[in-house]
């Protein structure tokens, strides 16, 4: 129990630091690469233990997003997107529920539920997060094409990073 | 209190989600220049859109008043035209009072498909509408008032089996009677025009003013075909009406101020 909390606290710290100190610097100014950012901190919400109360997930989403926002100087934008996926995590998990149901003591990791399952789950969560994030960043659907391009490029690279993270740490909790 | 806690337990995450998203929205527009500019711009767009719509709507509503006042003005102008024509021809003996008074009114019920068609008009004796007043549309003759009550009146349409309107050839004094014979609401017949009159297709027919209902010179229609029935000494002419009687809204009621005097005179001959 305590080890689960500790693992999540560490993951929170590592992901946020990685995001705001390293990945924030990854920006390109030329061509289609300008659409690209690397965003991996939603992995914290993705990997929260299944038995975390939904209310707490939403709250942690807000804290996490707001912290990233402070460094990106975009108060509220990351937070709004993260709160969004934090709330809908419950429903996405319900849709992806394996035949045998979940063991609520587990975290939704590749180790527990298999790599293909995790791939789908993480892809939906990250894709949703990025789409919401870029929509709110544009603040209008007038630039829907740019929003989609942003989402697509950022998703491809960020997802690689997430898989990378997954293969390095291969967390159980 | 217990219920409140239960409610929070069940919908807590949703309420928190809603609250935090609203908070984020507030923070976004508070602290991010680009987004707040977009918000202000959108707000302006929306309010402009709403303003335009509401102005259109109120303009549309105003139109009814405008139409009403224009119709009143038209009635006034028609009155003055008739009076001036009379003066030009030296007919008018009294300069002070015009012989024909016009008033505007609206048709509230109409029929054209019956054997005897009537129009209902939204003015009655309260507005000094009287029987035997003429009803004129914007293109020509429509009918004659047959009955009134306080607020409304009924007019016998031209499209009535008993409708007889004295008519003449434009720019001449050859006259006949307009009657409605078939069931076509767009055409009437001009009877009783003597055979020697140079009646031709496309001649314009107007009121003669002999019936003391309509002023002379109100247009009625245009001759479509003419023929002389066998053994008859007068023409029958089919006349296409100018006024579309199936599509009436505003009409003008015309009162002949001298009708009473003229009728008294007629009576004195009959009584002889």
Describe this protein's structure.
The complex is a heterodimer of chains A (173) and B (272). Chain A is 68% helix and 0% strand. Chain B has 272 residues and is of the alpha+beta class. Helices cover 36% and strands 28% of the residues of chain B. The N and C termini of chain B lie far apart (103 Å). The model of chain B has no long low-confidence stretch (mean pLDDT 86). The chains are: A mainly alpha (173), B alpha+beta (272). Chains A and B meet through α3 and α4 of A and α1 and α2 of B.
Summarize, please.
Chain A is an all-alpha fold and about 170 residues long.
Major sheet of chain B, described briefly? Answer: 6 strands, antiparallel, barrel
What's the average pLDDT of chain B? 86
Number of helices of chain B: 3
The level of helicity of chain A is 55-70%
Q: What characteristic shape of chain B results from the CA principal axes? A: elongated
- Gyration radius of chain A, rounded: 16 Å
Give the total of beta strands of chain B. Answer: 12
Q: What is the end-to-end distance of chain A?
A: 10 Å
Oligomer: heterodimer
Strand content of chain A: under 5%
Query: Number of DSSP strands of chain A?
Result: 0
Counting helices, strands and paired strands, the structural category of chain B is alpha+beta
Q: What spatial form of chain A do the alpha-carbon principal axes imply? A: globular
Identify the strand order in the major beta sheet of chain B: 1-2-5-4-3-12
Features of the shown structure:
heterodimer; A: 173 residues; mainly alpha; globular; B: 272 residues; alpha+beta; six-stranded antiparallel barrel; 12 strands; 28% strand; elongated
SSE order and pairing:
The complex is a heterodimer of chains A (173) and B (272).
Chain A lengths: L1 H21 L19 H5 L7 H19 L4 H19 L14 H4 L1 H24 L5 H26 L4
Helix pairs in contact in A: 1-3, 3-4, 4-6, 6-7
Chain B lengths: L1 H30 L1 H56 L11 E11 L7 E4 L12 E3 L4 E8 L4 E5 L7 E5 L5 E5 L7 E8 L9 E4 L11 E9 L6 E8 L8 E7 L2 H13 L1
Antiparallel strand pairs in B: 1-2, 1-12, 2-5, 3-4, 3-12, 4-5, 6-7, 6-9, 7-8, 8-11, 9-10, 10-11
């Amino acid at each position: 129990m305590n080890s689960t909390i500790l693992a999540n606290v560490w993951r929170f710290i590592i992901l946020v630091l990685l995001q705001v100190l390293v990945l924030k610097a990854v920006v390109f100014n030329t061509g289609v690469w300008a659409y690209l950012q690397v965003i991996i901190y939603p992995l914290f919400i993705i990997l929260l233990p299944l038995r975390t109360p939904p209310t707490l997930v939403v709250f942690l989403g807000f804290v996490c997003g707001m912290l990233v926002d402070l460094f990106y100087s975009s108060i509220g934008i990351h937070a709004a997107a993260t709160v969004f996926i934090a709330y809908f995590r419950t429903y996405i998990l319900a849709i992806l529920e394996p035949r045998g149901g979940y063991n609520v003591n587990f975290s939704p990791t590749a180790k527990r539920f298999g790599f293909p399952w995790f791939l789908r789950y993480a892809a939906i969560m990250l894709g949703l997060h990025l789409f919401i994030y870029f929509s709110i960043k544009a603040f209008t659907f007038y630039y829907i094409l740019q929003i989609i391009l942003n989402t697509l490029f950022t998703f491809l690279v960020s997802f690689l990073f997430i898989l990378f993270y997954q293969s390095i740490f291969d967390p159980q909790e | 209190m217990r219920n409140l806690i239960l409610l929070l337990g069940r919908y807590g995450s949703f309420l928190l989600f809603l609250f935090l998203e609203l908070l984020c929205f507030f923070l976004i527009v508070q602290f991010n220049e680009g987004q707040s500019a977009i918000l202000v711009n959108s707000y302006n767009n929306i309010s402009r859109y709403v303003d335009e719509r509401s102005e259109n709507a109120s303009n549309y509503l105003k139109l009814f008043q405008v139409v009403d006042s224009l119709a009143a003005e038209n009635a006034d102008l028609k009155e003055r035209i008739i009076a001036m024509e009379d003066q030009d021809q030296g007919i008018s003996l009294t300069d002070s009072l015009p012989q024909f008074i016009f008033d505007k009114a609206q048709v509230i019920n109409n029929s054209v498909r019956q054997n005897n068609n009537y129009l209902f008009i939204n003015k009655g004796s309260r507005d000094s509408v009287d029987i035997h007043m003429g009803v004129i549309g914007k293109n020509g003759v429509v009918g004659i008032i047959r009955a009134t009550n306080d607020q409304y009146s009924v007019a016998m349409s031209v499209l009535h089996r008993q409708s007889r309107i004295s008519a003449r050839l434009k720019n001449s004094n050859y006259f006949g009677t307009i009657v409605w014979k078939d069931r076509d609401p767009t055409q009437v017949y001009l009877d009783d025009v003597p055979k020697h009159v140079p009646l031709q297709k496309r001649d314009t027919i107007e009121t003669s003013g002999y019936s003391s209902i309509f002023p002379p010179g109100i247009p009625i229609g245009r001759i479509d075909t003419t023929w002389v029935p066998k053994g008859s000494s007068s023409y029958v002419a089919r006349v296409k009406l100018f006024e579309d009687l199936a599509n009436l809204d505003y009409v003008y009621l015309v009162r002949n101020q001298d009708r009473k005097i003229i009728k008294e005179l007629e009576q004195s001959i009959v009584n002889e």
